[in-house]
Design brief:
Blueprint lengths: L2 E6 L2 E6 L7 E9 L2 H8 L21 E9 L5 H6 L8 E4 L5 E8 L1
Antiparallel strand pairs: 1-2, 3-4, 4-6, 5-6
Length: 109
Amino acid sequence: MGEAGLPNGKGIICASLSGLGRASGICTAVFPIDSLNQDFERFNRSSRECFVIDAGLFPKGTRNIEVGVWAVPARNKVSFEFNNPNIPANLLYKVAYCEPQIWVYARPF
């Protein structure tokens, strides 16, 4: 719950997440797949409250992955699916106890 924003100079342009009518992308990043294991070690191998990505779920030869974070209102989940088609359930993590829900996905890039 709170605000999301876009970097703008030394500040951030903020927009409230409450009352969203459709899913809204908060941020997207591309990571080399070989960095994931090192990052996991850096965070003490703790999977609590983490979106753990199993590299074995991606097609052989995948070198980079896209990770996205979206605010998804319960009443309009289809707007996320329209903007992010074919995300497998095992590569989508949903924080459903807040409104809007926060969804994190991964896919080959």
